[in-house]
Amino acid sequence: MFYKMTNLKSAIASMPRAIARNDQPTLTHIHRLVVELLMHLDEEKKEKNKAKRENAQPIVEEIDKVLSKYRIKT
User: Fold this and answer.
1) Is residue 14 assigned to a domain?
2) I need a labelling partner for 22 at 20 to 30 A (CA). Which of 16, 38, 46, 60 fits?
3) Residue 65: what are its φ and ψ, rounded to 5°?
4) Domain of 63?
């Protein structure tokens, strides 16, 4: 996951140039990375809700750490 975040950060940094040049392959790549990240975070939220239902507090706390890293509120 860390690799994807680093890759996403560098891709987003190059986004203004890609927009200025209308570089569709780069813009498509950035879009794919963002969608993958959102899907991953959605899975984390689902795991958190499942753990809450099962009263698995340590798991909930661990997932909260991951989500708070990306400043996502549940």
Assistant:
1) yes
2) 38
3) -60, -45
4) 2-69
What does 29-68 look like in DSSP terms, one character per residue?
A: HHHHHHHHHHHHHHHHHHHHHHHHHTT-HHHHHHHHHHHH
SS3 9: helix
Predicted model pTM: 0.57
Token pair of 59, please?
A: 């798991």
Asked whether residue 30 is domain-assigned, the answer is yes
Express each pLDDT in 4-54 by its tens digit.
556 777 877 888 888 889 888 888 888 888 888 888 888 888 888 887 777
Q: Please give the tally of structural domains in the chain.
A: 1
Residue 27 lies in a domain: yes
More confident residue, 54 or 74: 54
